[in-house]
Specification:
Oligomer: single chain
Shape: globular
Number of strands: 19
Distance between the termini: 39 Å
Number of helices: 17
Number of domains: 2
CATH superfamily of the largest domain: Ribokinase
Strand order of the largest sheet: 5-4-1-8-9-10
Largest sheet: 6 strands, parallel
């Protein structure tokens, strides 16, 4: 598969919209340390240090579509409770999605609370209602879908078996999409896939495929046989089987099987990887991509997300950075959003690694930048570089800047061997980001006095240090541009 196909697809995704319908839930992560056993019972005592909430289920699919740059119209059901309120705030306030949450007072909104010590999950506690929704609620969902689907390029059905996607709703939604020639992607649940009849694609993992087909799935030949069995018995057009460390297999009716090798460099956490695959497939098909290109993009996205902690997302720029063939170092480093950067830094620090932070526009990379980044890398175990967005560069440097847009700057920086992660920021200063990420080392050029360095006081107050990197004389992006304009470069 040519990277040109993927890049062309990535360019169109921002204009694509997916209608996502399914079971939304709240994932709550309560983390801390265990230092002793309870005297009341033979159980560990978790000293809670942190609590994070994020969208799960269909909400995580929507989150991933949005992270990849696509648009989402979202439909689900919540209860009249605090969990439902939190779900709504995350969908609307944080993701700014077009959201239709049908409130059913008779239901309890789904919440999964995970108690984690270090990187080890100790306990999961679920609170939810799983019985099928009423006919009244179902009709409301269908009415909304009829209004929204004409404006969407694909229908994504995220089935977690919590009662929203009843057999009747599935049948009517799939027919609605088929009548409009819209692809239907299903992240399935259960062992009987006949309820997904007419869908373009179902995306089971290996275990789900084995249970649904009743067949072995150890080899590629067995995978193909099991997928073809599902295609015939369930009446779907195709199956994208995710096979963990063995990659993926795309099997469509009456076509040759297509196998994709795993892209993960390191597997840290597989939570939500299926949501990422479903999201990437649905937004790719909504953007007009063919199935093989969409599967290649989904495979690349999955390879990145399993290297992150918890229910994470993937940005398109991360995928593009891995595809970049001009890397100085073949081990690409990710471009992260705030949430995933915080998650990654916490993981590094829990391993006893020191995290460094530096920032700048990095518009045209020159030897001065290389020297700064090398000194920054020497001062810490892991280096994260924050770069100004295009909007913030224009505010700082004028309307004729930047020369290179934020995606190109981020991809190039992420390829450097001394850089472990890149993050974009649009604030006037990086202070908010520094306070969020709490780096151990703050690095800035020696042209700044320590009391002039944004965030220095905060980092030192939390036990960190500030490094003033020596400058390489004669290198400046502004001067380089001036020489180019004067014909001296």
């Amino acid at each position: 598969m040519s990277n040109k196909n993927l890049i062309a697809l990535a360019d169109t995704i921002s204009d694509a919209t997916v209608l996502c319908v399914g079971d939304v839930m709240l994932d709550r992560f309560i983390s801390g340390d265990v230092e002793r056993i309870s005297p009341e019972a033979p159980i560990p005592i978790l000293r809670i240090e942190n609590e994070n909430v994020m969208l799960g289920g269909a909400g995580n699919v929507a989150r991933n579509i949005s992270s990849l740059g696509g648009q989402v119209r979202f439909i689900s059901v919540i209860g009249e409770d605090q969990t439902g309120d939190e779900i709504e705030k995350l969908l609307i306030n944080k993701l700014s999605l077009d959201v239709h949450l049908v409130v059913d007072p008779s239901r309890t909104s789904s919440q999964k609370s995970r108690f984690v010590a270090g990187n080890q999950q100790m306990l999961r506690a679920d609170m939810e209602t799983t019985h099928p929704i009423s006919d009244e609620i179902a009709n409301i969902i269908l009415e909304i879908a009829e209004e929204e689907l004409p404006e969407c390029g694909a229908l994504m059905l995220s089935d977690y078996g919590k009662g929203v996607l009843t057999d009747d709703i599935l049948s009517r939604l799939i027919k609605l999409a088929n009548d409009q020639n819209k692809p239907v992607i299903v992240d399935p649940k259960g062992n009987d896939y006949r309820c997904y009849k007419g869908a373009t694609l179902v995306t089971p993992n290996r275990k789900e495929l084995e249970h649904a087909s009743g067949m072995k799935t150890r080899t590629e030949a067995e995978i193909i046989e099991a997928c073809n069995h599902l295609i015939k018995s369930a009446g779907v057009e195709g199956v994208l089987a995710t096979r963990s460390g063995d990659g993926m297999s795309l099997i469509m009716y009456d076509q040759d099987a297509w196998h994709l090798p795993a892209k993960a460099r390191a597997v840290f956490d597989v939570s939500g990887a299926g949501d990422t695959v479903a999201a990437a497939m649905s937004i790719s098909l909504a953007a007009g991509g063919d199935l093989q290109t969409a599967a290649t993009l989904a495979n690349a996205a999955a390879g990145i997300v399993v290297g992150k902690v918890g229910t994470a997302t993937v940005q398109m720029i991360e995928i593009l950075s891995r595809m970049n063939k001009a890397h100085i170092n073949t081990e690409n480093h990710p471009v992260l959003d705030d949430e995933n950067a915080l998650r990654q830094i916490n993981a590094w620090q829990k391993q006893g690694l020191s995290v460094g932070f530096t920032n700048g526009c990095f518009d045209i990379l020159h030897n001065g930048h290389r020297s700064l980044l090398q000194q920054a890398d020497d001062a810490c175990d892991k280096l994260i570089v924050a770069i100004n967005t295009d909007v913030s560069v224009r505010k700082l440097k004028g309307n004729d800047r930047p020369v290179n847009d934020e995606m190109n700057r981020a991809v190039l920086l992420s390829s450097l061997k001394m850089v472990d992660a890149v993050i974009l920021f649009g604030d006037e200063t990086p202070l908010r980001l520094i306070k969020l990420l709490r780096p151990n080392v703050l690095i800035k050029g020696a042209d700044y006095e320590e009391n002039e360095i944004v965030g220095a006081e905060f980092v030192k107050a939390h036990g960190g240090c500030v490094v003033r990197a020596k400058l390489t004389v004669g290198f400046s992006t502004t001067a380089t541009i001036a020489r180019m304009q004067n014909g001296d470069a």
